[in-house]
């Protein structure tokens, strides 16, 4: 019951954020207030994704995150003060703890690792050998979820929290160095994790609470680690919702989704029979 209430509150919060950002988004489109070169953006979007994807070119085929999402919180804004408070609280609460280590170990975003991350929530063990259709579905959306936000990362060049505070993340020095100049907004992990969660709830709606909670955790892990601000993660989830809607317009995605649903039903039934035999 508490989980259900939490998810309802989250949905309401996302809706409120979207409504609050609407006027800002309209101003950006109508007045070009951020100085965004729409014509130039179109030419930048024409390259193929380096990640697997269902869209031919996620950079070009999906709504532009720069036009779709509000700008990240300004330096002196109340929202940025909240971001900084969340960062400090997380560092004080989690640094060096089991939660810190779990967040570090959950940083892999290849298809099989993400399938394993969601396995408990789905109620079955997902892997390339046992559920190839499900792993393919998860893996092949990587570019769909990451690429639309990457243009905004390059455009805004928002400093990551560990860079802003001259601190360390939960990861290795090499990983920190790799992300020092990489934009923070919006969070690709959050976009991918929430997007996969929304898709998996279609496949197994009976466990939607567990699946959505896992998708939330995938994004929050990046806040705990110090790689992202809370607002990066919040707006990554909003972006994921738009992308999931667009994925459903693609025939190849819908075919893969249907095959994954059939596979899930078969594996679930086999698992039930195995439990009965073992009694």
Question: Can you give a write-up of this model?
Answer:
With 279 residues, the chain is mainly α. It contains 15 helices and no strands. Residues 1-47 have low confidence and may be disordered.
Short descriptors:
279 residues; 15 helices; 0% strand; globular; disordered N terminus
What's a concise summary of this model?
The protein has helices at 2-31, 38-44, 58-61, 65-68, 78-94, 98-105, 111-122, 132-140, 142-156, 161-164, 173-179, 188-203, 208-225, 230-247, 251-278. By secondary structure, it is mainly α.
Q: Unreliable stretches, pLDDT < 50, 5 or more residues?
A: 1-47
- The percentage of residues in β strands lies in under 5%
Query: Which radius of gyration do the C-alpha atoms yield?
Result: 19 Å
First and last CA, distance: 31 Å
Helix count?
A: 15
Shape, principal axes of CA atoms: globular
The main β sheet shows up as: none
Instruction: Give me the secondary-structure category.
Output: mainly alpha
Helix content: over 70%
Overall pLDDT level: 84
Reading the helices and strands in chain order gives HHHHHHHHHHHHHHH
What is the number of beta strands?
0
What's the helix and strand layout?
Elements: H1 2-31, H2 38-44, H3 58-61, H4 65-68, H5 78-94, H6 98-105, H7 111-122, H8 132-140, H9 142-156, H10 161-164, H11 173-179, H12 188-203, H13 208-225, H14 230-247, H15 251-278
